[in-house]
Structures are given as C-alpha cells and as structure tokens.
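Re-running ATP synthase subunit c to confirm reproducibility after the cluster update. Everything else is unchanged from the original entry.
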Amino acid sequence: MDNPEVVRLIAIAIVMGMGTVFPAIAIGKIGAKGAESIGRNPEAAPKVQTAMILAIAFAEAIAIYALVISLILKFVV
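Result of re-run:
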C-alpha cells in the first residue's frame, strides 16, 4: 500500500462501487413504493408517477456525480 497509484485505484473502485450500488437500491425502492401506491390508489397515478420519475432522476444524478468523481480521480489527480 505504499504505492500511491494503488491507493488511487482502490479509491476509484470504492467510489464507483458505492456510487452505483446505493443509487440502484434507492431507485428500486422508489419504483417499488410508487407501484405500491399506484396499486392502492389508481386515481392518483399521474401525480405519483410524476413524483416517482423526478425522484428517480435525482437518485440517478448521484450515480452520475460518482462517475464524475471517479473520472477526476483517474485522470486529473
């Protein structure tokens, strides 16, 4: 672990691993709860679907931020 290149590559792996797993879990939970709420109240489907798509976009943005950070660690630092 004395080599800084190895430490940098491990940091990139951790950032990408956490940056893909946690948003994927969040998107799954958002989709499951949205489908459950639409199943319970079908009349509210347009409002629930709009809020669900917006929340999924925010969760996906976190994964994109992790990608940007890992690319910065890979090519800039």
